[in-house]
Design goal:
Elements: H1 2-10, E1 18-19, E2 25-26, E3 45-47, H2 53-61, E4 67-69, H3 77-81, H4 84-91, E5 95-97, E6 107-108, E7 111-112, E8 114-116, H5 117-123, E9 133-136, E10 160-168, E11 172-173, E12 177-178, E13 182-197, E14 217-218, E15 240-244, E16 249-252, E17 257-274, H6 318-332, H7 337-347, H8 353-364, H9 377-382, H10 385-395, H11 406-410, H12 413-427, E18 429-431, H13 432-439, H14 447-458, E19 463-465, H15 466-476, H16 478-489, H17 495-516, H18 521-533
Parallel strand pairs: 3-4
Antiparallel strand pairs: 1-2, 4-16, 5-8, 6-7, 9-10, 10-17, 11-17, 12-14, 13-15, 13-16, 13-17, 18-19
Helix pairs in contact: 4-5, 7-8, 8-10, 12-13, 13-14, 14-15, 17-18
């Protein structure tokens, strides 16, 4: 039946819903780009200067409404100076994270998924190049970019989570997705055409399943060719269509779905990610004082990266964690490692309980400086940024795409084992260059990791023999084996198990919140003791960690 629908479709052009012989109807926009199902009819405000912080909160951030500020960053050095020649000369030695395209990560000067700015500038336009930067912006480049005046007072001033950068040769199409943080996306070079969809349509966008604890989300649709027979609910969605040009900034509210088509060579944009604020304190906002755009180097940013080593891109907002602890202290009287452990067992049921207990107790010592064994509400309020960051890093699984160890997760160690065994079987011994040549034939195999394997196999000698392979192969591929083991140890979370534990957590939170306020001290202690015995005591943190999704994939 669907075969008949498809063949009927290709014989005609789609401008409206079409009847076919078996009584079915092809929806308008079927197998066309996202948005072809109906005209964009949700207006987006456009202004010529950044709104003042109070107005920005009331009109856009709080209700979750996008806004474009035309020409917002034309006074920034990045707008005036950033082209590939300038970036190469000024910042060429700094590194950037490369984003995968589909299932494949590009290879840069620093290995799989990592490049220097200089090498990227030289190679991103090469034929068949899949290079695309989706990275934290290195701190030395902060001085060239601007955070808008809208962010310069009240709760906004202390809300910056991270600063990101996107670079490509244009001609890129991203997935339809939503991110956990509020975001100012500012164009430096090229243009971006945006499809924007309110999160209220989440259930109609056919999102991939994700655990309840995760805030970000991705739609299953192919934005270049939306299958409206497989994903029919898209036809019910209203949307917005806007284009950003060099100097423009678009505010994308937290959890607001967006899909981007990028044009222009080069295509460069920056992103200022800030907290999912639920209230706004404007006591230090002086309406008589004119606020100016400011480089992030002059403000506080939670997660920074110097342009070398591991990125912190996608780490949790410490404010979210502090708020969770404050709720826990209010409900339980204080926060202990045991409270956090029980909460994490409900949030991460796929992880071994023993691992949660060991790692959480260790991380809690970073917060409990006085070694009291608990944190009061005042203690939580006084926690410094450094301690909260330490806690988050200690309990957040490492995203290997943020590291130079990505290749260890990308190649199966058995592939490497078989490659080495084939070389020995064929030649009885091999040189370093022979191994480099064979390893580079593996998908995403880099020269650097091939030489690492050879050094460990041969122990510094010029030739690897069969005896070396027998003695040292496991040692040579230990990094690949370790990553594989860590991935397997995390377990797999199924949708039914996630729903079960989410329901348990919500049920116990309701019991605590509803009962705790009116019970006597004795009744309160008895209630908490009974809940502790059932292993369901919680501290009130909603979703402490998330995966960070990039704007173009």
């Amino acid at each position: 039946m669907y075969g008949a629908i498809v063949w009927s479709f290709v014989l005609v052009s789609v401008g409206s819903s079409l009847d076919i012989s078996d009584g079915h109807q092809i929806p308008t926009g079927h197998l066309q780009p996202l948005g072809s199902h109906k005209p964009a009819d949700v207006p987006i405000d456009e202004v010529n200067e950044p709104p003042d912080p109070v107005l920005f909160w009331e009109r856009y951030v709080n209700p979750g409404k996008p806004v474009i500020v035309r020409g917002a960053i034309k006074s920034s050095p990045a707008y005036r100076l950033w082209d590939m020649d300038y970036l190469k000369e000024k910042y060429g030695g700094l590194e950037l994270r490369l984003q995968e395209k589909g299932e494949v990560y590009p290879i840069g000067a620093k290995g799989l998924g990592r490049d220097t700015i200089s090498n990227f500038a030289d190679t991103y336009t090469e034929k068949n190049s899949a290079k695309y930067v989706a990275s934290q912006l290195p701190v030395p480049m902060y001085k060239d970019v601007h955070t808008l005046s809208s962010m310069q007072c009240g709760s906004f001033r202390d809300s910056l989570v991270e600063i990101d950068v996107w670079m490509s040769g244009g001609r890129r199409s991203g997935v339809l997705h939503k991110d956990p943080f509020n975001n100012w996306n500012c164009m430096i070079r090229g243009t971006k055409v945006w499809a924007l969809i309110d999160d209220k349509y989440h259930d109609l966008l056919h999102p991939y399943w994700r655990p309840e604890r995760m805030i970000a989300g991705i739609s299953q649709i192919d934005p270049k060719s939306v299958d409206l027979i497989k994903f029919p609910n898209i036809t019910k969605v209203r949307w917005s269509n806007v284009t950003t040009y060099p100097g423009d900034c678009l505010f994308i509210p937290r959890s607001y779905y967006h899909q981007i088509n990028s044009y222009g060579d080069p295509n460069i944009a920056t992103g200022v990610l800030f907290s999912r604020l639920v209230e706004f304190n404007h006591t230090d906002c002086d309406e008589t004082k004119k606020l100016e755009n400011t480089p992030p180097s002059e403000t506080k940013v939670t997660w920074n990266w110097q342009g070398h080593g591991d990125l912190t891109m996608g780490n949790e907002d410490h404010r979210f964690l502090r708020n969770g602890f404050l709720k826990g202290a209010e409900i339980n009287g204080n926060v202990t490692a045991e409270h956090i452990i029980e909460e994490f067992k409900l949030l991460f049921p796929e992880l071994p309980a023993r691992d949660i207990e060991i790692e959480t107790k260790k991380a809690f010592t970073m917060l409990d400086k006085e070694k009291k064994g608990f944190l009061t509400k005042d203690d939580v309020t006084r926690l410094d940024l450094h301690s909260l960051r330490q806690f988050i890093v200690a309990l957040t699984p490492v995203d290997l795409s943020n590291t130079e160890r990505l290749e260890y997760s990308y190649l199966d160690p058995n592939q490497i084992r078989h490659m080495v065994e084939r070389l020995i079987a064929k030649y009885s011994k091999f040189t370093e260059e022979m191994l480099v040549e064979e390893y580079s034939k593996l998908e995403c195999g880099t020269e650097d990791k091939a030489r690492e394997i050879f050094r460990k196999l041969g122990g510094g000698r010029d030739v690897v023999t069969s005896t070396d392979v027998v003695s040292n192969l496991k040692y040579a591929i230990a990094n690949w084996l370790d990553v594989l083991q860590s991935i397997h140890s995390r377990g797999v979370l199924r949708a039914d198990r996630d729903a079960e534990f989410t329901a348990k957590r919500k049920e116990r939170l309701l019991i605590l919140r509803d009962d705790i306020q009116y019970r006597s001290k004795r009744e309160r202690e008895e209630l908490l003791d009974s809940l502790k015995e059932e292993n369901v005591k919680t501290m009130g943190v909603g979703k402490p960690f998330h995966n960070h999704d990039n704007d173009e994939l």
